[in-house]
From TrEMBL:
One of its GO terms (cellular component) is membrane. One of its GO terms (molecular function) is metal ion transmembrane transporter activity. It is a multi-pass membrane protein. PANTHER family: TRANSMEMBRANE PROTEIN 165, TRANSMEMBRANE PROTEIN HTP-1 RELATED. Pfam families: GDT1. Its main location: membrane. Belongs to the GDT1 family. Keywords: Membrane, Transmembrane, Transmembrane helix. This is GDT1 family protein.
Length: 184
């Protein structure tokens, strides 16, 4: 139980204010389907953190950090551009061909690559030597933190115009990308 609780608390706290929490907010505002988004976050995190717990150290030894740095920075810049592209018809259920669940799953999976919560999962798995409980705890921590953004994000977006949320989120993604390049 200690492994599950420690993994949950560490990731739940680390995720507060993180880029994927911003992504959850934007997806919640865009799709207005909180359970689809939460399910996508669950699947993406379970896969991502499961792989991180199993293969994180191996990947970090295989791929030089400079390549990972550039890949992560490029990912953030791509998110910054993507967030500024308006949908053709946001009222149309089929406006995104993948829908809320698959879009959330794919974006969260890739956004978590190299993230502090993914790296925390690697460290926790190495410390506790229990892939199942660590993966469960970190996944539940992600669901808790991002679930807050999904549930309360809709209330926020009803008061703030969506275009301003897109502009600010895009800027934050650019800053994350630049920060990765500068610190890498």
């Amino acid at each position: 139980m200690e492994i599950l609780l420690n993994s949950f608390v560490l990731v739940a706290i680390a995720e507060m204010g993180d880029k994927t929490q911003l992504l959850a907010l934007v997806l919640a505002a865009k799709y207005k389907k909180p359970w689809h988004i939460i399910a996508g976050i669950f699947v993406a995190t379970l896969l991502n953190h499961g792989l991180a717990a199993w293969a994180g150290e191996w990947i970090s030894k295989l791929v030089p950090m400079q390549y990972l740095t550039w890949l992560l920075a490029f990912t953030f810049f791509a998110f910054a551009i993507w967030i500024l592209i308006p949908d053709k018809d946001e009222s149309n259920e089929g406006s995104m061909r993948w829908g809320a669940f698959w879009t959330t799953t794919v974006l969260f999976f890739f956004a978590e690559i190299g993230d502090k919560t993914q790296l925390a999962t690697v460290a926790l798995a190495a410390q506790y030597n229990n892939l199942l409980l660590v993966t469960m705890g970190t996944t539940l921590g992600m669901l808790f933190s991002n679930g807050l953004a999904v549930v309360f994000g809709e209330k926020l977006t009803s008061r703030i115009p969506m275009k301003w949320i897109h502009y600010v989120t895009s800027l934050i993604y650019v800053l994350f990308g630049v920060g990765i390049l500068v610190s890498g």
